[in-house]
Design goal:
The complex is a heterodimer of chains A (582) and B (542).
Chain A lengths: L14 E4 H20 L8 E5 L4 E4 L2 H8 L7 H13 L4 H21 L3 H22 L1 E2 L5 H16 L7 H17 L6 H4 E7 L7 E3 L1 E5 L13 E3 L2 E5 L13 E4 L2 H24 L4 E4 L5 H9 L3 E3 L4 H11 L3 E2 L11 E2 L2 E7 L2 E7 L7 E7 L2 H24 L1 E4 L3 H14 L5 H13 L1 H10 L3 H14 L6 E4 L4 E4 L6 E3 H19 L3 E4 L5 H18 L5 H27 L1
Parallel strand pairs in A: 5-17, 9-11, 9-13, 11-12
Antiparallel strand pairs in A: 1-22, 2-3, 4-18, 6-17, 7-16, 8-15, 9-14, 15-16, 18-21, 19-20
Chain B lengths: L3 E2 L5 E2 L9 E4 L1 H19 L9 E4 L5 E4 L2 H7 L5 H16 L4 H20 L4 H22 L1 E2 L8 H11 L8 H15 E2 L4 E2 L4 E7 L7 E3 L1 E4 L11 E10 L11 E4 L4 H24 L4 E4 L5 H9 L3 E3 L4 H11 L3 E2 L11 E10 L6 E8 L5 E7 L2 H23 L2 E4 L3 H14 L6 H22 L4 H15 L4 E3 L12 E3 H4 L2 E3 H20 E6 L5
Parallel strand pairs in B: 9-19, 12-14, 12-16, 14-15
Antiparallel strand pairs in B: 1-2, 3-24, 4-5, 6-20, 7-8, 10-19, 11-18, 12-17, 17-18, 20-23, 21-22
Helix pairs in contact in B: 1-3, 1-4, 2-3, 3-4, 3-16, 4-5, 4-13, 4-16, 5-12, 5-13, 5-16, 6-7, 6-11, 7-11, 12-13, 12-14, 13-14
The chains are: A alpha+beta (582), B alpha+beta (542).
InterPro entries (chain B): Chap_CCT_epsi, Chaperone_TCP-1, Chaperonin_TCP-1_CS, Cpn60/GroEL/TCP-1, GroEL-like_apical_dom_sf, GROEL-like_equatorial_sf, TCP-1-like_intermed_sf, TCP-1_chaperonin
Family (chain B): Belongs to the TCP-1 chaperonin family.
GO cellular component, one term (chain B): chaperonin-containing T-complex
Chain lengths: 582, 542
């Protein structure tokens, strides 16, 4: 910087990069991100283990990985966003959307390098994406959900989604569970509330195959006071009272103060307090409830009071659980114990406290409004269950999508190959740069079958060429995709690899959109963080403190660490300067 | 992760604090994970079986634990490696679910990974290996179901349960007196079990340990023991036909929860207050006495004044009894927990045949024993032993044994131990492998080899020639078509120089569920480990 008089416009340390190099650099960054997740695709996809300093996550879910990677690159963050939006919108296919975006950018990169104006590229990519989505819609096969076949279809879609997951070996167990849970919602027309109404509970321990579905609500035994064990733990057709009231002996108002004149009055105050709580408890019992649930604590006095009168109670029930109980049993949550009447009580066919592994669960079954269901997942380790939960969640979303879109396409790369062929043919009918760009787009779609082969350890080139041939020659060949079991091609529609068509449409559109966003950027301005100097100093300080606080550490180590720390700190600064100039 | 440079030579940072993150990927990651997991399983391997050795574990606070219980070892080791932690959880989950076989499951997972490593070397895709293992595990679990035997038992004939408990205890430190220990475990479980519903409520079994005496002094009390003493030395120490009131309120003047203030302006008022307090005490004690109680169990404390009053009225009292104990006492004695004195009545009292205070040796430590309770479905095991470590280990061992008994009550199918079940599975799995075409065949065969590792480890730990013993047992199983042949680790060498014996004859068996769970849990975790191809960890400063 020295020696050259410069006009300083931006604050020192501001990172500006612009022009073609910037665009290329952004594309590269996106590809690097896509490279990270690409190995998770498909039934032979692998998992990632990410340790963020506190928690370990082992996952195969694109959105989860992208979130945990903590991506800082501004352009690459776009990919995180599309993965998230896919997760929010469809719930599955979060890996393939990133992969597609990466591949599109890769296919387009040569054009950028050759100097084609990004806007032209964007226009054509958009056109191609539109055509692709239309083609997928045209290809999709509609299904009537209420038939036997419709049910089959849902099962197949759920299984396809589970295919790439850790629990792929247990599709036969999970798919029907998932479909049943979603169908219950669909019948009641409450599909959109899936996230609140279907609960997934995890209990570490046990075999994954001992996971089960409760048609109703189940939640873990809450913290209980002495007397809990003396309660009745099983009811038939109980009346359920839901409260948001604290049932504990306590002062009624935080800042109230009582002045008493003589010691006799002491007792009256105490009695009054007891009376308050007893009135509440009495109201609960009198309204005819058998089970009392509260979001707030139910103290030991109340526990014993209810135990004496043959009621069951649980305090500190989680909000979501209480809502589900309310939905399922038809009871309404009360914020006061005054004026309780029969109408606000919920009911269910059977209530029982059940032991699952080392935990105890309160289970409400045979509820009148059979909306809610609870899936209880088991597994050998915390991470295993966490990953199962994500997988089941994805599958739930897929089934939900299916019920909404009522149409499916074949997976295993088949639909991508068919769309790719269609676009290639289309490209030949137009003139100009668009022709090249659309065929590049077409080629980029082949990344899905290609990656499936790569992950399974097959020769991608051979299989891709076989697939291209099949799709080009045969009209019946439109559903040919990668046969993961045999390392060959097969009709994936026949073999039951199905996905909801919405899923594909959304991922194509989102990927193309992301590619366009990245293409339209020609300059990045990164402002230096305002607290940067302080931050850097603090960091250095931390580095110095760290070895010192470690009293057991060798003094030499401490010195080395300090040196190393400060050196890398300098390097960091240097790097940002270099970037600033570029 | 190192920096990535683009074509123009500029570095770009994709991840936050990229340089501080470490990343291993591909086959390298899989292999590194396998090595980590394997080394964990190597540690516990020597603890397997009746001749397994113990580990001494010192916590950061200097607490010493000596044990050969897999789950405890794994738990106390404070494993740092992320993948190795999975094995710790594996062991813990076997412990939660079954309570026994926590070492075996880790050893099995270790052997499976060892086999997987070999297959990876041959270029087989990790997920295919895992899938092959899953298929094999299915076969193995089915085989176990086929070779399983049922043990008939009833409340009059508990012998089979005792034998099973003995198998579990034989690998533990307390195996010197395992018959007695096994009886204690079985009686404890049967005492609280609901044989009709096949349900055992473990919360009703209490385990108290007191260092001192010897292991043989361990006893089962048909009632409750609490680590508390009678509050006043002159109170009666043994109460027959005890009627106890169980209180959750303190012996002190009632206090409102609302913030309050009492202004004393004169000496008279002060005296009045004092008098009032005195009256409260008297009234409380009188209320207790009126209810007909002769023992007071109180969750809170009371001061010397109340103590003295109680003594004068001939009531014995126990103070500062914890909430859980209070609940247990209430359930066992059929009493009700009473929140305030005014609610005391005769029907709320708990009843017990005898309550006595016992002291140990010539120490001052005392415990309270409540026996012959009205609802006699609460039992307590009082564990004695030379030192704290032995007591703790004995408690763990008894817990394992009780879990086994509980599992048998739930499901009385058993398989035979001493490696017999594993050998039978191994044979079944390898013959199944031959019917499979393709890569899976290798994985399935590898699974069979991994199963063999359990009997091998058993023999190794007993100082026998592992290969010879395994071969002998295996060939006899094949020849006689008898899945009951296992490694007789205690017996003498037979004519052919090996110790292969019919395990049914010497009565070594394990629960079927436990074995099946071992295999399926180990397979799941192995699949999880094999499926990881990318490990991203934060830097050391995080």
């Amino acid at each position: 910087m020295a020696g050259r008089p410069g006009i300083i416009i931006l604050r020192e340390g501001t990172d500006t990069s612009q022009g073609k190099p910037q665009l290329i650099s952004n594309i590269n960054a996106c590809q690097a991100v896509a490279d990270v997740v690409k190995t998770t695709l498909g039934p032979r996809g692998m998992d990632k283990l990410i340790f963020d300093g506190r928690k370990v996550t082992i996952s195969n879910d694109g959105a989860t990985i992208m979130r945990l990677l903590d991506i800082a690159h501004p352009a690459a963050k776009t990919l995180v966003d599309i993965s998230m939006s896919q997760d929010a919108e469809v719930g599955d296919g979060t890996t393939s959307v990133v992969l597609l975006a990466g591949s599109m950018l890769k296919a387009i990169k040569p054009f950028v390098e050759e100097g084609v104006h990004p806007q032209i590229i964007i226009r054509n990519v958009r056109a191609a994406a539109k055509l692709a989505v239309e083609k997928v819609k045209e290809l999709s096969i509609p299904y009537d959900m209420n038939t036997e076949q419709g049910y089959e279809m849902l099962i197949k879609c759920a299984s396809t989604s589970l295919n790439s997951k850790l629990i792929s070996g247990h599709q036969d167990l999970f798919s029907p569970m998932i479909v049943e849970a979603v169908k219950a919602l669909d019948d009641a027309g409450a599909l959109d509330e899936i996230k609140t109404l279907v609960a997934i509970k995890r209990i570490p321990g046990g075999d994954v195959r001992s996971s089960f579905l409760v048609k109703g609500v189940a939640f873990k035994k809450t913290f209980s006071y002495a007397g809990f064990e003396q309660m009745k733990k099983k009811f038939e057709n109980p009346k359920i009272l839901l409260l948001n009231v604290e049932l504990e002996l306590k002062s009624e108002k935080e800042n109230a103060e009582v002045r008493i004149e003589s010691p006799e009055e002491y007792q009256s105050i105490v009695d009054a307090e007891w009376q308050v709580i007893y009135d509440k408890l009495d109201a609960c019992v009198k309204c005819g409830a058998n089970i009392v649930l509260s979001k707030l604590p139910i103290g030991d006095l109340a526990t014993q009071y209810f135990a004496d009168r043959g009621l069951f109670c649980a305090g500190r029930v989680e909000d979501g659980d209480l809502k589900r109980v309310s939905k399922a049993t038809g009871g309404t949550v009360q914020t006061s114990t005054n004026g309780l009447y029969d109408g606000i009580l919920g009911t269910c066919g059977k209530f029982e406290e059940k032991r699952v592994g080392d935990e105890r669960f309160n289970v409400f079954e045979d509820c009148p409004q059979s909306l809610t269901s609870t899936m209880v997942l088991r597994g050998g380790s915390e991470q295993f269950i966490a990953e199962s939960e994500r997988s089941v969640h994805d599958a739930l979303m897929v089934v939900k999508r299916c019920l909404k879109s009522k149409a499916v396409v074949a997976g295993g790369g088949a639909v991508e190959m068919e769309v790719s062929k269609y676009l290639r043919d289309y490209a030949l009918t137009i003139e100009g740069k668009g022709q090249l760009i659309i065929s590049a787009f077409a080629k980029s779609l082949e990344v899905v079958p290609q990656q499936l082969c790569d992950n399974a350890g097959f020769d991608a080139t051979d299989i891709l060429s076989a697939l291209r041939r099949k799709h080009a020659q045969d009209d019946d060949g439109k559903w040919y995709g990668v046969d993961i079991a045999e390392g060959d091609i097969c009709d994936t529609f026949e073999s039951g690899v199905w996905e909801p068509s919405d899923n594909k449409c959304n991922s194509l559109a989102a990927a193309a959109e992301a590619a366009c966003v990245i293409l339209s950027i020609d300059e990045t301005v990164v402002n230096p963080r305002s607290q940067d100097p302080g931050g850097a100093a603090a960091q250095q300080q931390m580095m110095q403190q760290k070895p010192m606080s470690n009293m057991m550490g060798n003094a030499m180590d401490a010195v080395n660490a300090q040196k190393g720390g400060s050196r890398s700190g300098n390097l960091g600064n240097g790097v940002s300067y270099m970037r600033g100039r570029g | 992760m190192s920096l990535i440079y683009d074509e123009y030579g500029r570095p770009f940072v994709i991840l936050k604090e990229q340089q501080a993150k470490a990343r291993v990927k591909g086959l390298e990651a899989t292999k590194a994970n396998i090595i980590a997991a394997k080394s964990i399983s190597q540690i516990v391997r020597t603890s397997l079986g009746p001749k397994g050795m113990d580990k001494i574990l010192v916590s950061p606070d200097g607490d010493v634990t000596i044990t050969n219980d897999g789950a405890t070892i794994m738990d106390r080791m404070e494993v740092n490696h992320q993948v190795a932690k999975l094995l710790v959880e594996l062991s813990a989950s076997q412990d939660d679910e079954i309570g026994d076989g926590t070492t075996g499951v880790v050893v099995l997972a270790g052997s499976l990974l060892e086999q997987a490593e070999k297959l990876l070397g041959r270029g087989i895709h990790p997920v295919r290996i895992a899938e092959g293992f899953e298929k094999a595990a299915e076969v193995a679990i089915k085989t176990l179901g086929e070779i399983a035997d049922t043990v008939p038992f009833s409340s009059d004939n508990l012998d089979p349960l005792i034998t099973t408990a003995m198998t579990t205890l034989s690998s533990k430190i307390i195996n010197v007196d395992k018959r007695k220990m096994a009886e204690i475990a079985v009686n404890a479980v049967v005492g609280v079990a609901d044989l009709e519903r096949k349900d055992v409520n473990f919360d009703m079994i209490r385990m108290e340990g007191k260092p001192g005496g010897s292991l043989e002094d361990t006893e089962l009390v048909n009632g409750i023991i609490i680590d508390k003493d009678i509050s006043h030395p002159q109170m009666k120490k043994t109460i027959k036909d005890a009627k106890m009131c169980i209180l959750t309120c303190p012996f002190e003047p009632p206090k409102p929860k609302t913030k309050h203030k009492l202004d004393i302006s004169s000496r008279e008022a002060y005296e009045k207050l004092y008098q009032q307090e005195q009256d409260y005490f008297k009234q409380m004690v009188q209320q207790v006495k009126d209810s007909g109680a002769n023992l007071v169990i109180c969750q809170w404390g009371f001061d010397d004044e109340a103590n003295h009053l109680l003594l004068q009225n001939g009531l014995s009292a126990v103070r500062w009894v914890g909430g859980v104990e209070i609940e247990h006492i209430a359930i066992a004695t059929g009493g009700r927990i009473v929140p305030r004195f005014s609610e005391l009545s005769e029907d709320k009292l708990g009843k017990a045949g005898v309550v006595r205070e016992i002291s140990f040796g010539n120490t001052k430590e005392r415990m309270l024993v409540i026996e012959d309770c009205a609802n006699s479905n609460a039992v307590t095991v009082l564990v004695r032993g030379g030192n704290k470590m032995i007591v703790e280990e004995a408690k763990r061992s008894l817990h394992d044994a009780m879990c086994v008994v509980r599992n048998l009550i739930k499901d009385n199918r058993v398989v035979y131990g001493g490696g017999a079940a594993e050998i039978a599975c191994s044979l079944a799995v390898s013959s199944y492998a031959e019917t499979i075409v393709g890569v899976d065949q290798f994985a399935i065969r590898a699974f069979a080899d991994a199963l063999d590792d359990i009997p091998l480890a058993l023999a190794e730990n007993s100082g026998l020639d592992p290969i010879q013993e395994l071969a002998a047992a295996k060939s006899r199983q094949m020849k006689e078509n008898n899945p009951l042949i296992g490694l007789g680790l205690n017996g003498d060498a037979g004519e052919d120089g090996s110790r292969a014996t019919n395990m049914k004859e010497i009565g070594v068996f394990e629960t079927l569920v436990g074995k099946q769970e071992q295999i399926s849990l180990a397979t799941q975790v192995v699949k999880m480990i094999l499926k990881i191809d990318d490990v991203i960890t934060m830097g050391q400063y995080q």
